[in-house]
Design a protein that fits this description.
elongated; translocase; 6-stranded mixed β-sheet; Rossmann fold; 42 helices; ATP binding; ABC transporter transmembrane region fold; nucleotide-binding; ABC-type xenobiotic transporter activity; 3 domains; alpha/beta; 10% strand; AAA+_ATPase
Length: 1236
């Protein structure tokens, strides 16, 4: 941790130094990392150096060994000495190597951690400009992908000097053996370098393309999952359109991937050929230069084992360079983000002649604002949609750029945004928000915020866990509890039932509320509250036009009194008028600044949209509310935990998973690949046997001239076998590339196909991050990691078998040792793989909380900053990262454990090969001995790799397991089935509920207890009831988001449970509560299937009062909507939803509190359009605000899932029952109805 801190400071220092050079400082990251970690680096370098030097001792010993065997007259002890020395050198080498690895891997882990911490820290202070540049998805990516890249490169950073060193040493020793002819081999190597360089740059460009498509695909996936989470996608039955979009991006991505795979198979081909070509060139030149030069066994095999040492650095360098190239991309991204602008946050409330803009260069939204607010006052901010009310809030929070003027704020802030932000934690934690728990104060706040009745409904009381998607839990409670000095309240009274609004104003905000001694700034549309505030600030188009008390402003006949007169009509009927206007523009903007791309998107959306929770103070028990009154104690446990813990497979990966992957590849492919690789291995062994035979010529033609035909045959066959190897590897890799792309395609489309068909219940209990993870990390593994580890595994396996075969061929004695060695090997490997696999699983499971906490933070930035809780969140981030490191570190150590044991086995193989050669030296020719020992020297590494690869393959194949787990979840009913409704259905739009009962999940109580009613064609029905009475459940049932427990719903006498979901959902229209838009064009948002002509679309835009706006945009219908519709105001989004409904034109329309989020003007527009355009339809309106349904033909009053009254509004008022009481709260009387 200290290191982390140290690093931060250095980063900051570096940053300031470089600020001037460019728009963001660059190339400081690497030096900073070096300064922080230089001692570990130096230490590990030392170990690496020793190991490199020892590596060259073995070939020299081999040389002595071969000459010993040739010379039968020497004493046997010499041979035994060499065997023991071989063992000793190898052991020392192993120990040094493992020490080096241990240090490097721990270093990599530290670097990753430091980068993650730095990114998190930066995200808390980042300014809006910087935030606009990168979406949330990209920021989360910095933490996951880019930090990981650094981790991987740091592991092998020493190879940058070690590889060249090994190459130079090898050449020196080869020169001693073969003289100048080494230069021929060297020339071949040098030629390889530019070719590899070329391939590497090509590969990098392709990699960048792949990342682009990945980002694009994940962005859409996020939106889709999000759209499902808030049910929009399902209600509109738009899944197929989005599925097609994702599939087309995925198709492009796979094509690019295929190119990448082809490219890498070319480089593999060059690699495999390289050692063969090098030794061919060297030997050919050596024997060709003069007839004196004879290839003896000691020369040949010492050279071969030197060439083997050369293979590693030559293979590694290009890979390392490629990795470094990739890391430079990450480095740039990180430097750009970490070097971006910070916010200057110092905020008290006097604003002096300030102008504020969202971005540095943009036009200011608020112009020349001057405010002076005395402590302890209640100030209301009013104005039409888009006048800059929420922007003013953001400016006070320091979230906007002040282009001139200054703000001065004394004291601590509490902020209630329009779009609520909730953490995945218990209800109590969300209210306490890091403050200590004081029961009395807590209860006071709960009562004042009208949360009492709702807590009683929750199984766990205030300890109930709130999911990513929470009901409208009141944000106000968090603010009220925080005991700040200044409260910025962004229209918290809008979307709540009238009596709750009144209660809140009286008990919390107003002159006699909890906060009466604090400074309060309240954005509101509720005309009825204005007489009670101390001061009113009137905004018009970003300019403060008037300031004064209610009475003085009424008297002055300015903009304010006009505003009042316009709505004087509604004043009585509606003390809690609408919400959210500029909000949209700003808060939302601010809250999200294009950023909740990735999980946070999810989070933010689900939270925000669904909760709007600053809006009603009740934890709404709607929709999926998993929470009901407990029947008995144990049941309450079931209801409390909304989000299941992520499951983690344990034990061995089932063989069936491997088969599943092979099946996805195609059996033909799989077999072909294996055969090709096998043939390559045979050619390799053949080549070396040929060489050993060749060296025996030296004995045969001793002191005789070496015939040139013989020489040419030897060289020719040797070369041919080398090329054949390369060719087969090339073909094998090529077919593997095709196979793995095919597998990726199949696995992804199965996953996508299934996720879109999964019932809502799944999304209510699964955090979206978890689903995104399947599409991101796991699909990435299937795409890139599995094919590679599969290939390496096959090659390693064949390599080990080949080596053992050659040794047994040379010294048949060796077969005795194979069995015990193999047993030990098997047990070590089983033991390791099990541990390693489990640790890897723990790693990936403990990683998700880091990212989800991060995205949660990014989406709640304005709240965290307003409350000044950055420190607490930093701490929490450190704790989650440490949790993850607890499984990373043991994994690193377990790798070292394994390596030491395996290398010991490998060293024993060398020892026994040498030992048996000495024992039976009388019957052996020196060629074969050289061959078997040089092979044995190579086996150590191959053995180590084999286990490593087995384990990696198992670890990676878990991704297939995880993907298929989500491809096999139970689906909801079919989208289209055999009973299709008539073309024109529903023609009349009659609705009948017959004893309809429903529950959210099996095991929970009913939400609707036997609803029975008939709704005639073209009736207009208003549905009212206190929060949690089951109003929204009703719409969920109509669309079959939740299925009946018993009973039926008939539409025009067709039972809706008998037809396909899409047939049903396409024929109903809903204007949802939360206007959700998707990124894409405006046209796509209205008509994703391109079913309608442009004329139709312009017509509905006109009806929904958006025509002028859209016509004014440069691209018109092709205007790009930002993610979640951030670049439109909430009012405009709501109107777009209305346009969608008008476009569908079905006979049944459901309005879900659709006007809660717009100001009075927009509200009137929507109401009038609906009255006119949908007059021939059956309309169900779920209303929070009674005045909007006073003109319906009947009103249905729900309470606790039952219909308590249903009749015309006037009759209900006479009856003086439930409805009458609600109307009285809202100040509606019978006289008002006659006016309407």
């Amino acid at each position: 941790m200290e290191e982390k801190g140290k690093k931060e400071e250095e980063k900051k220092k570096k940053k300031d130094k470089k600020k001037e050079e460019e728009n963001y400082p660059n190339s400081w990251l690497i030096t900073t990392i070096y300064k922080t970690f230089k001692w570990i680096l130096i230490e590990s370098a030392l170990f690496k150096l020793l190991q490199d030097l020892l590596a060259f001792a073995s070939p020299q010993l081999l040389k002595l060994m071969v000459s010993f065997i040739q010379d039968k007259s020497r004493y046997a002890w010499e041979g035994y000495l060499y065997a023991v020395l071989l063992l000793a050198v190898a052991l020392l080498q192993s120990l040094f190597l493992q020490q080096y690895f241990q240090r490097c891997f721990v270093l990599g882990m530290k670097v990753r951690t430091a980068i993650m911490a730095a990114v998190y820290k930066k995200a808390l202070v980042v300014s809006n400009d910087t935030r606009k540049e990168s979406t949330v998805g990209e920021t989360v990516n910095l933490m996951s992908a880019d930090a990981q890249r650094f981790n991987e490169v740091t592991n092998f950073i020493h190879l940058l000097w070690s590889c060249p060193l090994q190459i130079i040493l090898a050449i020196v020793f080869l020169w001693l053996e073969l003289g100048p002819s080494v230069l021929a081999g060297l020339a071949v190597m040098v030629l390889m370098v530019p070719i590899n360089g070329l391939l590497a740059t090509k590969a990098r460009n392709i990699q960048v393309k792949i990342m682009k498509f990945k980002d694009k695909r994940l962005k859409i996936m996020n939106e889709v999952l999000n759209g499902i989470k808030v049910r929009i996608l399902k209600l509109y039955a738009w899944e197929p359109s989005f599925q097609a979009q994702v599939e087309s991006i995925r198709g492009q991505e796979l094509n690019v991937m295929k190119n990448f795979a082809y490219l890498s198979s070319v480089s593999t081909f060059i690699f495999t050929c390289a050692p063969a070509l090098v030794s061919l060139a060297t030997f050919a030149v050596f024997v060709g230069v003069s007839s004196e030069n004879v290839l003896t066994a000691e020369k040949a095999f010492t050279s071969i084992s030197l060439f083997n040492i050369l293979r590693f650095p030559l293979a590694m360098l290009p890979m390392l360079i490629a990795a470094i190239v990739q890391t430079t991309v990450s480095k740039r991204r990180l430097e750009k983000f970490l070097g971006g602008e910070d916010l200057d946050s110092d905020t008290a409330i006097s604003v002096c002649d300030g102008s504020f803009a969202w971005e540095k260069e943009a036009e200011p939204l608020l112009k020349d604002v001057s405010l002076d607010i005395k402590p302890g006052r209640l100030v209301a901010v009013v104005g039409a949609v888009g006048s800059g009310k929420s922007s003013l809030m953001s400016a006070l929070l320091g979230e906007m750029h002040s282009t001139k003027g200054f703000i001065n704020i004394q004291g601590s802030l509490a902020f209630v945004p329009q779009q609520a932000w909730i953490q995945n934690a218990t209800l109590r934690d969300n209210i306490l928000f890091g403050s200590p728990h004081e029961e009395r104060r807590f209860q006071e706040v709960i009562q004042a915020c009208a949360l009492g009745p709702d807590l009683e409904l929750l199984a766990g009381g205030d300890l109930t866990e709130i999911g990513e998607k929470v009901r409208k839990l009141h944000h106000l409670a968090r603010a009220a509890y925080s005991q700040a000095d200044i409260y910025l309240l962004d229209d918290p009274l809008s979307a709540v039932d009238s009596h709750v609004g009144k209660h809140l104003f009286d008990k919390v905000i107003g002159p006699s509320g909890l906060l009466k001694d604090k400074t309060r700034i309240l954005v509101t549309h509720g005309v009825s509250f204005l007489p009670f505030v101390d001061e009113i600030v009137v905004l018009q188009d970003g300019v403060v036009t008037e300031i004064g008390s209610y009475n003085s402003l009424r008297a002055s006949r300015g903009a304010f009194s006009e505003f009042l007169d316009t709505y004087a009509k509604e004043e009585d009927t509606q003390p809690d008028s609408p919400l959210e206007d500029t909000v949209s523009v700003t808060l939302k903007r601010e809250n999200s600044i294009r950023r909740h791309r990735s999980k946070s998107l999810l989070l933010q959306k689900s939270l925000c949209l669904l909760c709007l929770f600053s809006s009603s103070f009740s934890v709404r028990l709607r929709k999926n509310s998993s929470i009901r009154k407990p029947e008995n104690a144990d049941e309450s446990k079931k209801g409390q935990r909304l989000i299941e813990k992520e499951t983690m497979e344990t034990g061995q990966v089932k063989f069936s998973v491997f088969l599943q992957y092979l099946r996805a590849m195609g059996w033909g492919y799989a077999v072909t690949v294996f055969l090709l690789y096998f043939t390559q291995n045979v050619a390799f062994i053949g080549q070396n046997l040929w060489l050993s035979d060749w060296t025996n010529d030296a004995v045969e033609y001793y002191n005789r001239t070496y015939p040139s035909w013989k020489r040419d045959t030897r060289v020719g066959v040797f070369g041919a076998l080398g090329v054949v190897q390369g060719l087969f590897v090339f073909l094998g890799t090529l077919s593997l590339a095709n196979a793995s792309v095919a597998a990726s395609r199949i696995l992804h489309s199965r996953l996508l196909n299934n996720i879109l068909r999964v019932p809502m219940l799944f999304f209510d209990t699964t955090p979206i991050g978890r689903v995104v993870n399947r599409f991101a990390k796991d699909i990435f593994t299937v795409d890139e990691a599995i094919p590679q580890s599969f290939r390496s595994w096959v090659l390693c396996l064949l390599g080990v078998l080949g080596t053992l075969f050659v040794i047994c061929l040379a010294t048949p004695f060796f077969t005795i040792v194979i069995v015990p060695l193999a047993l030990v090997y098997y047990f070590v490997q089983r033991f390791y793989v099990a541990t390693s696999r489990q640790l890897r699983r723990l790693d990936s499971v403990s990683r998700s909380p880091i990212y989800s906490h991060f995205s949660e933070t990014v989406s709640g930035l304005s709240v965290i900053r307003a409350y000044g809780h950055q420190e607490r969140f930093l701490k929490h981030n450190e704790i989650t990262i440490d949790e993850n490191l607890k499984s990373v570190y043991p994994w690193i150590v377990s790798n070292r454990w394994l390596a030491i044991r395996l290398e010991f086995l490998g060293n024993l193989v060398v020892f026994f090969a040498a030992l048996f050669a000495v024992i039976s030296r009388d019957s052996l020719d020196s060629g074969l001995v050289g061959l078997s020992i040089s092979y044995a020297l190579n086996v150590t590494q191959t053995l180590n790799w084999l286990v490593r690869m087995t384990s990696e393959l198992e670890t990676n194949i878990v991704a297939v397991e995880r993907v298929s787990e989500y491809s096999e979840i139970e689906n909801e009913a079919q989208w289209v089935n055999n009973t299709r409704p008539p073309e024109k259905w529903p023609e009349e739009g009659r609705l009948q509920f017959k004893n309809y009962k429903v529950r959210y999940r099996p095991g929970l109580d009913l939400v609707l207890h036997g609803i029975t009613c008939d709704i005639g064609s073209t009736e207009k029905i208003g549905i009212v009831g206190r929060t949690g009475a089951g109003k929204s459940s009703l719409t969920n049932c109509l669309f079959r988001i939740i299925e009946a427990a018993e009973g039926h719903i008939l539409i025009d006498d067709i039972d809706i449970s008998t037809i396909g979901l899409h047939d049903l959902r396409n024929r109903l229209t809903i204007i949802p509560q939360d206007p959700v838009l998707f990124s894409g064009t405006l046209r796509m948002n209205l008509d994703p299937f391109d079913k309608f002509s442009d004329e139709d679309i312009w017509r509905v835009l006109e009806l929904s009062h958006l025509k002028d706006y859209v016509a004014g945009l440069q691209e018109g219908l092709q205007h790009e909507v930002a993610e979640g519709g951030e670049n439109l105001s909430v009012g405009q989004r709501q109107l777009l939803c209305l346009a969608r409904a008008l476009l569908r034109k079905s006979r049944i329309l459901i309005l879900d509190e659709a006007t809660a989020a717009v100001d009075l003007e927009t509200d009137n527009l929507i109401q009038n359009t609906i009255r006119k355009e949908f007059s021939h339809c059956t309309v169900l309106t779920i209303a929070h605000r009674l005045h909007s349904i006073m003109d319906s033909s009947r009103v249905m009053v729900l309470d606790a899932g039952k219909i308590v009254e249903i009749d015309s509004p006037s009759n209900l008022l006479k009856k003086q029952g439930h409805f009458y009481a609600m109307a009285k709260d809202a100040g509606i009387t019978i006289e008002d109805i006659t006016v309407l």
